Amino acid sequence: MDDFVAATASEAHIKRERAKARELRKTPYFRNLLQQGICHYCGKRFPAEELTLDHIIPVARGGRSTKGNLVVSCCNCNRTKSCLTPAEQLLDELEKSGEL
C-alpha cells in the first residue's frame, strides 16, 4: 500500500475520544464483551486481561468512541491493524497474500 494517505485528527479530538473509550471500557456492555473473551478480528478466545478495546475507525483517523466503532480485540490483532481503516486493512492483507 505505497499510496497510503494518512488523514489525521487533531490532538484535542484524540485526547477526548481516548478518554471516552476509557470510560466506556468500564460499562457493563464492554465488560461483558471482554469477559466473553473473543477477538473481533481473529475470532480466537483470550482471557479478558489479554484483550483491548479497538476503534474500528482509528481515533487518529477521525474515529469516535461509540459502541458502533469499538470492538474487543487481542493485542496482536490490535497491533497488526494499527491505524488502518477496515478497507485499508483488507487491501493490506490481500497485498501481503499476493492476491492483489
If you had to describe this structure to a student in words, what would you say it looks like?
The protein has 100 residues and is mainly alpha-helical. It is built from 4 helices and 2 strands; from the N terminus they run H-H-E-E-H-H.
Largest sheet: 2 strands, antiparallel
The helix count comes to: 4
Structural class designation: mainly alpha
Strand order of the largest sheet: 1-2
Oligomer: single chain
The run of helices and strands is: HHEEHH
Number of strands: 2
The best one-word shape is: flat
> Ranges with pLDDT <50 over ≥5 residues?
none
The helicity comes to: 40-55%
Give the radius of gyration. Answer: 14 Å
How much β-strand is present in the residues? 5-15%
Summed over residues and divided by their number, the pLDDT gives a mean of 90
The rounded distance between the terminal residues' Cα atoms is 10 Å
List keywords for this structure.
100 residues; mainly alpha; 10% strand; two-stranded antiparallel sheet
